[in-house]
Amino acid sequence: MRVVVFRHVPFEGLGHIQQVLEERGIAIEFADLYQPGAQAPETATAAGLIFMGGPMSVNDGLPYLELEIESIRRAAEVGQPVLGVCLGAQLAAKALGARVYRNSISEIGWFAVHPTEAGREDPLFRGFHDSEAVFHWHGETFDLPPGAALLACSERCRHQAFRLGSCIYGLQFHLEVTPEMIADWCQQDANCGDVRELDSLPDPAHNAARLRELSRQVFGHWADLLTCVTA
């Protein structure tokens, strides 16, 4: 069983997701279409597709992002599982007919998200408490795609997670990050504009243990969908 993972910058990797996939014996194929000369992967036979984050916008008109949007549309047509994280969630929203635009305020650091009624009933989010401090790094948001269920919200950004059908998920926040990843992101040149807006840098370890628990739950349930769909 194989998943294709679309990355958009070298420093935004799978984090906790990688261990979840490896524990289940799921092979990982990375697609770095932002790299010059990169070839588009064969996705039709993949058990699922994962789209990671990045500092660019889905509205930048980048050719490789347009290819990814088409991949999401094809996946939706055939019921192929999709997981989008941050930029990946915005790509999924746009591919499925929703608008992506600047949020009223940037959300960078540890902020609470709250599961909705639909989220409390969703297999991926059932273990969430009414308020969970998770890590965020984004300045844009999205409308819900037609027919999608809102699974989580926050004070600064209402649309934090959605599900369309049974196997397409978009998460605006970052459950996958480790403390080491957060510390690294704060040092990246591509993020320097965002960092300058902060009064202080986020503590990488602030809620790391709980974040790891949530990541294993959410990504574990998503990985289990791969077996159900391909069975």
* Poorly predicted runs of 5 or more residues: none
Query: Structural class given helices, strands, pairing?
Result: alpha/beta
Radius of gyration: 16 Å
Roughly what is the average pLDDT, rounded to an integer?
95
Helix content: 25-40%
Classify the beta-strand content into a percent band: 25-35%
> Major sheet, described briefly?
9 strands, mixed
What overall form do the CA principal axes indicate?
A: globular
User: What's the tally of helices?
Assistant: 7
Order of helices and strands: EHEEHEHEHEEEEHHH
Count of β-strands: 9
Distance between the termini: 11 Å
- Report strand order across the widest sheet: 2-1-3-4-9-8-7-5-6
Structure in words:
With 231 residues, this protein is of the alpha/beta class. The protein has helices at residues 16-23, 63-78, 87-95, 117-121, 179-185, 192-196, 208-230, and strands at residues 2-6, 27-31, 48-51, 82-85, 100-115, 132-142, 149-153, 161-164, 168-171. It has a 9-stranded mixed sheet, sandwiched between helices. Helix 1 (16-23) links the parallel strand 1 and strand 2 (27-31). The model has no long low-confidence stretch (mean pLDDT 95).
Supply the key terms.
single chain, 231 residues, alpha/beta, 9 strands
Question: Quick recap of the structure?
Answer:
α1 (16-23) packs across α7 and α2 (63-78) packs across α3.
How are the elements arranged and paired?
Blueprint: E1 2-6, H1 16-23, E2 27-31, E3 48-51, H2 63-78, E4 82-85, H3 87-95, E5 100-115, H4 117-121, E6 132-142, E7 149-153, E8 161-164, E9 168-171, H5 179-185, H6 192-196, H7 208-230
Parallel strand pairs: 1-2, 1-3, 3-4, 4-9
Antiparallel strand pairs: 5-6, 5-7, 7-8, 8-9
Helix pairs in contact: 1-7, 2-3
